[in-house]
Structure formats: structure tokens, C-alpha cells
Fold this protein.
Amino acid sequence: MFEDPALVPEHVSKSQLKRDSAALQSLAAELATLSRSQLKSLDLPDELFDAVVGVWTIKKGGAHKRQIKYAGGLLRNMDVEPILEGLKRLKSNSVEWRRHHHRIEKWRERLLSEGNVALTELLKEFPLIDRQRIRQLIRGAKYQDSTGKPPTARRNLYQFLREQLEMKQE
């Protein structure tokens, strides 16, 4: 009747169990916002992967909530620390990507608005950029802006800058 206190599991309140369940369901809902490639990078068990993909197919209503609860229930039976670490890694990569994207956009806008001053600064920072090609792209983007044509040249300038700046970061 009297058991060793070290062997008796610690009592967990019903409220704590509900909070834990809600946290796992919100983790499942967050997983459902990721793309297929991002989910694969987390290396989820097949059953959980299928449950999360199942959330995508059900758009709204009770079935959608049940599917998220199901995925949360699957999370209850596994170690979620690797999944949380993977999500943290994906978010930090996303922040870095956004920062890099904004840097490229700023260069593009500076090149189009400031002209040679910005081009000189860009070439100082990245001396291996093809000068002739970037001048052609800037001219084309300015011409398209003045004529009101679709921004194809602006996109080409962005892609060129992205390729060149990514090469320099590696």
C-alpha cells in the first residue's frame, strides 16, 4: 500500500494536460502552414507528415479542427524537441532570406534612382560584377519605367543582382 515516492509518477493537473494538448495542437497548426519541402526537411515520421498534409486538403470547419487535433495527438506520443529545433532553424533561415532579399531590392532601387553614384558604390563592394551587363539592365529598366511597359527589365535586374550577390556571399 505504501509505495516508494520515487516510483510514483508526479501528479499532473487536468488543466496542465489541457495546456499541453493545446500547445501541441498549435504546433500542428504551425506545421500545416509550411510547404512540403519544409516539412520534409524536418524529417517527420510518415504518419505525422500525412496528418499535416491532410490538414491542407480540408479547408475549414469541424473536419479541419479534427485533423489538427489528430496531428496534435500524434505529437503527444513523440519527442517534439527536434521538430521545434527544425522550426526554429527554418524561421531563422527565412529571416536571413528576407534580409538578403531586401538588400537586393535596395540595391536595385538605388541603381534606378541614383544612377552612376550607386553603380560606383556597388562596383566598389562587388568588383567582379559584369559592368556592361548591369548597365544594360539599368538602361532597360529605366526605359520600361518611362514607357509604362511591364516590369520585365526590373525583374531581370533583380535576378542578375541576386545571382551576383549570392555568388559573392558563398
About this structure: Residues 94-169 form a domain with the Diphtheria Toxin Repressor; domain 2 fold (CATH 1.10.60.30). The chain is about 75% helix and 0% strand. The first helix runs from residue 14 to 31. The mean pLDDT is 81.
